[in-house]
Amino acid sequence: MNARTTQTVVHFPSAFSLPGFDTPQPPGDYLVDHDEEVVDGNSRIAWRRVAAFIHLPAIASRASTRHLVPLDPAFLDAALAQDRTGS
After folding, report:
1. How many Cβ atoms are within 10 Å of 2's Cβ, its own excluded?
2. Per-domain residue ranges of the chain
3. Following CA atoms 85, 31, 25, 52 in sequence, which dihedral angle do they give, to the nearest 10 degrees?
4. How far is CA 65 from CA 59, 70, 86, in A?
């Protein structure tokens, strides 16, 4: 099975919370790892996201300890959309 991990940066202009987080996280830029596996197809290569992890705390934080927290990509997408609309 072919797999890959891609890393992106997401920006939250205001504090946010995701299921499984003990406390809201401050605004800022956060690294997110997306684990994907190849989907077998006849003519094209496609990738399916199977897991996501967010790096805590935010990139700009000077904390000496960092954590990699698993999360549901759908919850991350919903939190980003909610942050954009200000709801």
Report:
1. 10
2. 3-85
3. 80
4. 12, 17, 30
And the tokens for 4?
Answer: 């890959």
* Nearest alpha carbon to residue 58 among 87, 6, 16: 16
Task: Please determine, for residue 77, whether its predicted confidence score (pLDDT) is greater than 90.
Answer: no
- pLDDT tens digits, residue range 31-43? 999 999 998 877 7
pTM of the model: 0.83
Q: Note whether 52 and 28 are within 8 A (CB).
A: no
Closest CA to 37 of 67, 4, 13: 4
Predicted local distance difference test score (pLDDT) of residue 22: 85
CA angle 60, 62, 67 (to 5 degrees): 85
